[in-house]
Design goal:
CATH architecture of the largest domain: Orthogonal Bundle
Strand order of the largest sheet: 1-2
Radius of gyration: 24 Å
Helix content: 25-40%
Shape: globular
Number of strands: 2
CATH superfamily of the largest domain: Cytochrome c-like domain
CATH class of the largest domain: Mainly Alpha
Distance between the termini: 53 Å
């Protein structure tokens, strides 16, 4: 071919071929961005600039989540305490069991819609998912292997170096990339297909009791749940903050069995505060509260209706605390319960994309 025949289009074509050839020669393969569902009733999805979710990264994270290689004696995985059928909580256990039968001190939270949360653990001591997932590996009574041991195992494994290469462009396994991969997988755990979601999309119509329960939850002079558990204009089911919801009668910090977020911040105003969980999938995540004190949803409703304790550190948004609770009738309690059951996302609880990859 003569120089004359090389018009602008041909030059672009040759340059493109050169780039492809260079990429092939270097062996570099770009990971593919993960496609999240469209969620019109949710707040905008936060995206981590430091750890964007990719198909390959999330798949690596799913494998690590289900692999007991992360525990000291290879007997436990993240999924041991976060089970999909219970919305990745450890229901019906009050407290999960770690290495050597050691019992955890707080109830295991469910895992879904985590990309929207600004802090993690019941007391919010982890500011990112990456920080949160690193914790159980290091703690002696939980998985307890330590990252040095885990990284050595992963490097010697037959599958993981290639998986790390596909996800991050390097087969040099380290704890930072392992935590990033698990965090990516956790960000894909989106629950958004309950009867409640279908009602928002006009694919399902509430029964009379379900609708009455929805109204009660969002009526400020009745259930008044919306201050902490958003189900009116924000479908997450949580305001994503922390609250002292009047579980204990307290005149001072010494009377709290667990001071919660107050131990993290050192602020007296945070005493007895815990992360506000989402109401989504609440029917399958019993027992309830940070200490699992309530075995049923009926007990939870009874607390907010008739047994809220006042005190200087109780969330000021809980106007019902001044009258001992929301004082719901038996019918209203039943209707509220019916609404809470519409928040169960059975699709999410059985979605194979989030299940154990070693069982496929």
């Amino acid at each position: 071919m003569t120089r004359r025949a090389l018009n602008g289009t041909s030059w672009i074509w040759i340059i493109g071929l050169s780039v492809i050839a260079m990429s092939a020669a270097s062996g570099v393969q770009e990971a593919h961005p993960y496609k999240f569902p469209t969620l019109p009733y949710f707040p905008p999805l936060p995206v981590s600039a430091d750890n964007p979710v990719t198909v390959e990264g999330a798949e690596l994270g799913r494998m690590l989540f289900y692999d007991p290689v992360l525990s000291k004696d290879s007997s436990l995985s993240c999924s041991s305490c976060h089970q999909q059928r219970y919305a990745f909580s450890d229901g019906p256990q009050t407290f999960s069991t770690g290495l050597a039968g050691q019992t955890m001190v707080r109830n295991t939270p469910a895992l879904f819609n985590l990309a929207w949360y600004p802090a993690f653990f019941w007391d919010g001591r982890a500011a990112s998912l990456e920080e949160q997932v690193s914790h159980p590996v290091r703690v002696a009574g939980e998985l307890g292997a330590g990252w040095d041991v885990v990284v050595d195992r992963l490097e010697r494994g037959v599958r993981y170096p290639e998986k790390f290469y596909r996800a991050f462009g390097t087969d040099a396994v380290d704890s930072v990339l392992a935590a990033k991969a698990i965090a990516q997988y956790l960000r894909t755990l989106i629950s958004a297909n309950s009867l409640y979601d279908r009602a928002l999309r006009r694919e399902y119509f509430f029964t009379e009791d379900e609708r009455a329960g929805f109204v009660l939850a969002n009526e400020q002079n009745k259930g008044d749940c919306l201050q902490c558990h958003t189900t009116d204009s924000d479908a997450l089911g949580t305001a994503r903050g922390f609250s002292n919801n009047g579980l204990e009668l307290s005149a001072g910090p010494e009377t709290y069995l667990d001071v919660g977020r107050g131990a993290v911040t050192g602020r007296r105003s945070d005493l007895g505060q815990f992360k506000v969980p989402s109401l989504r999938n609440v029917a399958v995540t019993a027992p309830y509260m940070h200490d699992g004190r309530f075995s049923t949803l009926e007990e939870v409703i009874d607390h907010y209706s008739d047994a809220v304790h006042g005190g200087p550190y109780v969330d000021p948004r809980m106007g019902s605390a001044s009258r001992g609770g929301a004082n719901l009738s038996a019918l209203e309690k039943r209707q509220l319960l019916q609404f809470l059951h519409t928040l169960t996302d059975t699709t999410f609880l059985s979605d194979n994309r989030f299940g154990d990859p070693f069982q496929e």
